[in-house]
Design brief:
The complex is a heterodimer of chains A (314) and B (654). Chain A is mainly α and 314 residues long. In chain A, helix 6 packs antiparallel against helix 8 and helix 8 packs antiparallel against helix 10. The longest helix of chain A is centred in the N-terminal third of the chain and has 31 residues. Chain A is globular, with a radius of gyration of 19 Å. In chain B, the strands form 3 sheets. Chain B has a two-stranded antiparallel ribbon. Chain B has a two-stranded antiparallel ribbon with strand order 3-4. In chain B, strands 6-7 form a two-stranded antiparallel sheet. Helices cover 70% and strands 6% of the residues of chain B. Chain B is globular, with a radius of gyration of 27 Å. Chain B is mainly α and 654 residues long. Chain B is built from 24 helices and 7 strands. The chains are: A mainly alpha (314), B mainly alpha (654). At the A-B interface, strand 1, helix 3, helix 4, helix 5 and helix 6 of A face helix 15, helix 16, helix 17, strand 4 and helix 20 of B. Strand 1 of chain A pairs parallel with strand 5 of chain B, so a sheet runs across the interface.
Chain lengths: 314, 654
Amino acid sequence: MIDIIIAIIQPILVLAVAPLFLGIVRKSKAHFQNRDGASVLQPYWALATLLKKDMTIPEWSSWVYHAVPIVVFACAFILALVTPAVGAGYTPDAASNVFFITGLLALGAAFLVMGGMDTGSTFGNMGSSREMTLAAIIEPTLFVSFTTLATLTSSWSLNGIVGSMVFGSWMTALPAAFALLALVYAALLENARYPVDNPATHLELTMVHEAMVLEYSGPYLALLEYASMLKLAVISILIMNIGLPFFMVMPGAPFENFFVACLFFAVKFIVAAFSIAVIETVVVKMRFYRMQEYALYAFLIAVAGFICFIALFR
Amino acid sequence: MDLHIAYSVSAAFALFVGAGMSALFLPKQNTLAQALLIAGGVCGLGAAAAFAFLNPQGGSLALFGGHFALSLPASFFFGLVSLGTLLSSLFAIGYLPRYALSLSFREVNLAFAFFVIGMCAVVLADSPAAFLFFWEVMSVAAYFLVIADKSEDSLKAGFIYFVMTQMGFFCLLAGFLLLSQGELFVPWEVLRGTAPLLGAKTLMCAFFLLFAGFGSKAGLVPLHQWLPYAHPQAPSHASALLSGSMLVVALYGFLNASLLFPSIPLSWALVVILVGLLSALFGALHAAVESDAKRLLAYSSIEHMGLLFAATGVLFGLMNSGGHVIIEVLKAGLFVFIIFHTANHFFFKTGLFLSIGAIMSETHTRDLDEMGGLARAWPIFSGVVLVLSLSAAALPPFGTFFSEWLLVQSLAHAAAVFSPLFAIIGAVMLAVVGLVAGLALFASVKMFATLFLGRPRTAHAEKVKPLPLTLTIAPALCAVCSAVSGFAVMPFIAPRLGAAMSSPLTDTSFLNATINVWYVLCFFMFAGGAAYLIQLFTVKKVRTTGTWDCGAPLTPRMQYSATGFAAPIRFFFRMLLVTKKDLVSVPASASNPWITAKRLDWSVNSIWERWFYARIGAGVLAAAHFIRRLQSGVVQAYLLLVLVTLVVTLILAL
């Protein structure tokens, strides 16, 4: 019974706090730039405002334009449902296979790209072309680093990986660290953060994600923005949970553990958001036509992790 | 029951022959020929399904008094070819009359009927002689399909195809002659018994000759050269069969031939893997940068054949080290991948070629750079193509995703359990497959987006009439098959992987990795439903406005073209893509040299064309130049040559 309650509360919690994550990132970034910044609750107000607004649709768009927010949001939503945040093992392994997760990320990216292409404007098209390229070249990194983590923990689902990390030995730390670093690279790319994309501007030199959603407005934009907040929060929490798999609640545990886990979830949540702000402050944006280098670094780190694993465990 | 199946197969052949005859003697009748082909396809599909249903454990049924037999693998491929014929002919009923002026029904339908007969007979052949004969029927009939419209491009493509396919045929002939020691008329079963008696070197020669022969048909590098030229030139319903079915027949031929060898050493397997992976990467990269819709699909076929052959290579490698339970499961996984992916590739590739055919018949171009905005004109048809494109991109929840999941998961397992060397090979393969998957996603999305989304880029795409139902129905059937194969087939193949099957909600377990199609589907329903509800309750007033244009009016040409869309990929992979870019300026006025007409000449060439074929061509020309010196016109020199030839022949012969 307790397990079922936790299994239901966990995704609701993640859905509820995702905008807060972005709020914390923005607030800390503003702090580093000697600004006050908006309240950490600002993303909630932004979403609420967008939901209340009327909508404009570009005259050249087709039915695909209307399908995009639904599919993109659905992908992020599924990601939020299956990712272990507070506790590991509450969703079936068969629902969070690592290669299913990569497929899900690709599906979301593909639809977002179609949204950008269905406007008849160069801006949306440019963002689409870039986003599709990035999604294509990061795939090998995701495959190899997930494989390293999965072989370390002999489990191929996100729940299993996080769950086994809880009992992992220190031997696994080195390969896992490499794999995680590669995943951090991939996460920054997938979520359109520095050094890949500048989330704060609509400047055509830098933009990828913002260019694609430029024509969206009102509730559609709210869905897309909420989807990107969810994706950012969930992927960051996932990386934190693999890296610091402490104080997670497991099926069969008493209810008190859940509160402890929630407390530590809050800590990890804030640390993750703060780290992204730090990364965005100390790292400069890379030119888009150097992204093959970025993807190559990520891939080499992932391969280094795998070779470490082979060297240590065979 | 066996008798009924045999009758049904005979009926299929009789109907195909009847279609050919009707095309020959009633050249104005297209519908009759297509109806006979459809009926033949239905008979073939029925026979294959009945055989597979009644003999799930294998067994074989001799047909036409020997030389042909229906076995379990043959029935699968026979069924696919029949289904392909059915779908293509269904499409051709509405499609061919649109080209009544440029194509001759008689030629196209006759060649098509013989092409189908050839393919069906190849998969049913029970001896090398029958196999090779019908292989040649298939190849030659395909030639006439490639040159069907008699244009300059088609004749050139047909020439390349014909040369390559004959080279491939002679490789096969040599390979089978070596393997059977000249006895081409004995059944496969007997060959399997005599092959182990041959020397290791003979076996190796035979294997690589057969690999080259089948590989050239399947479009593996470096013998793929003809494929991107020939497949797009055929009428689209024939392209669908060329890409969807003929390549599959080549794969069947290779699998069937490989079973004749007593064992396949690891080194041979590694060659197969390497060639397969190179093909997959090459195909995916070129598909990503290609702007011609049908060539894009042809490159995508090279990619998928590469993946299938690479998986076959891994399967060969695992055959050497049997016994361990993990290896047995991996073998099962790869085997299921090969079968399942073949079917999925067949569905989406057939569907996409037919769709492009339908689009071309309205827009009269296959250049993606001139398309756009078709989703507004054809909302339902665009939905069909969207499903097929997502399936080609191997995205969940479509069948291709689950078949590629099997491949990726097999390679990941291999990386996880094997000795260091093989683990690293597994990881490298996994990374290559990852890149291939990413590029395939890029190519599919690019194709769909530039065809259907945004504004029409030229008048070609602007003035389209509604598509008739006859052109929509066959692609729609393919789309349904792609979607259904995801969640309907996986539970059936799960038992092969060792999971207990008590209810449809059982996980598909593959060693310790599990995936469940039904969860995936339920999630999509749930999440999509939630998103739909949110927008249902929040969207109040919608205004249609112009796209934000920065104050200057937008023109359709300002949109990204397919060429522009792929620019980052061209730049990132410029080492592997031989791109050429020249700004050519031609003086336009005699008096003022500053007035010039400028034009950008650019092309993406295949690295193989540049470094392999061009070199061979240059070598042949140089040799010809050298040999030409003999042609001096002096009679004495020719007489001397005759004498030398005679002496050399006698020395060699005696």
